[in-house]
Amino acid sequence: MRLTRKLNITLTALSLSIASGVFAATAHADTLRVGMSGGYFPFTFVEQDELKGFEIDVMNAVGEITGDDIEFVTASFSGLAGMLESGRIDTIANQITITPEREAKYAFTEPYVYDGAQVVVKAGNDTIEGVEDLSGKSVAVNLGSNYEQLLREQPNADEIDIRTYESNIEQDVALGRVEAFVMDRVSATQVIKEKGLPLELAGQPFSTIENALPFRDDEAGREQRDRVGAALAELRESGELREISEKWFDTDITQP
Amino acid sequence: MLNLEYMWGLLPVLLSYLPLTLQMATIAMVFALILACLLAVVRVSRVPVLNGLSLLFISFFRGTPLLVQLFLFYYGLPQVISSLIAITGVTAAVLGLTLHFSAYMAESIRAAIVGIDRSQTEAALSIGMTQSQLMRRIILPQATRVATPTLMNYFIDMIKATSLAFTLGVTELMGATQKEAAGSFLYLEAFLLVALIYWVIVEMLSWGQRRLEIYLNKAYQR
């Protein structure tokens, strides 16, 4: 008897959570659901349960102009594209790089961050001074990121031992488990400066990267893209975009 | 060497995500148990048609990784059946855990049922019990005792498997830890702390399991 009552409570709890789920999914038109990993310093990260970073500041500033409620949704990076495509979020603010494949699939805003792909090694490793020295070496990249693609386009791609990671690539290079990782120059610089891991940049960036916000390529998605894109242009015009960049990076990464 | 101050400050933050982790595991466990019992009984009594379906169900959910199943249901199916978009990450995770673990649990419940001496079945049938009376009064109470340790194993595994929910956008204990570690770069501290939290929870469950086993053993004590 007692067991059935407990079961009843659990059943009610579940049906309630399913019901609330139905309501949560029918999002209002003026809510912009922004997906991000929450694990990519200093673009998006968490300190003491508070979501912070460059992307959060930019999106909140966009929301102030468009009047949208900005709702941040964090998920593993590998889950974000699925969330966008299945309509659970409206865009991804996670330093998403424009690629031909992604452009064919999504509606992008104009770029709001310009950057380069950077090889990073453990401090003191002077055998690697750029992407051309990676032949025969193990190199870590994040799963689902476009750095693997960039590496595969290099002339020495066949000789590079590319390892894809779900997370923690900086840690594995600092530990010496892989010899290098590839990440964008801006966040790599920031990681080395702020977090005291024994890492250093190896040579110059080897590819230009333009980052923008992807939306679903349908009518509603393109409409959101235009609205957010106009707000980004306004932020660029007023200098606020530059200020946000300087707050997190000490430099303006929003100009080519 | 260890930044204890950071760990101490992180503890209440991580603990605030523990209820969600435990809720998902507990609800999934309850439903998985019910489903697993049904599957096991169908398999043991060889119910026509249903037996074949149970075999297919168990084969699929045991034969593919949980992460693949979660991605399939949460991201894949809504592209075909658009109404499935209404399912939240938490519900999808609970559903995935339920289906996945019920397949394993059905087999261990089946083993417990089959393990009970056939003479008991014959005795029960000879005094006129129906098949369902036999199951409810004779077989299942004994099978429960046999199956408890392995079922607890699955529950423990399930608690840890809830960490996959972060791929569906559900910030549970592990997801919260990953994000905090990304902010502080104190990986050792953050992951050590979360490991300790999981360990303590599982130890508390093991204690409960010992109590439960003593209770279920009462009839066998002399």
Automatic annotation (TrEMBL), chain A:
CDD domains recorded: PBP2_YxeM
Domain Solute-binding protein family 3/N-terminal stretches: 31-252
Cellular component GO terms, alphabetical: membrane
An MF annotation (GO) of this entry: ligand-gated monoatomic ion channel activity
Coiled-coil annotated residue ranges, if any: none
Annotated signal sequence range: 1-24
Domain Ionotropic glutamate receptor C-terminal: 31-251
Keywords: Signal
Pfam families assigned: SBP_bac_3
Family (UniProt): Belongs to the bacterial solute-binding protein 3 family.
Protein name: Amino acid ABC transporter substrate-binding protein, PAAT family
UniProtKB/TrEMBL annotation, chain B:
Keyword Transport assigned: yes
Keyword terms of this UniProt record: Amino-acid transport, Cell membrane, Membrane, Transmembrane, Transmembrane helix, Transport
Domain ABC transmembrane type-1: 18-206
Translocase recorded as keyword: no
Pfam family, one: BPD_transp_1
Annotated membrane topology: Multi-pass membrane protein
Main localization, broad class: membrane
Family: Belongs to the binding-protein-dependent transport system permease family. HisMQ subfamily.
UniProt xrefs under NCBIfam families: HEQRo_perm_3TM
Protein name: Amino acid ABC transporter membrane protein, PAAT family (TC 3.A.1.3.-)
Species this protein is from: Vreelandella arcis
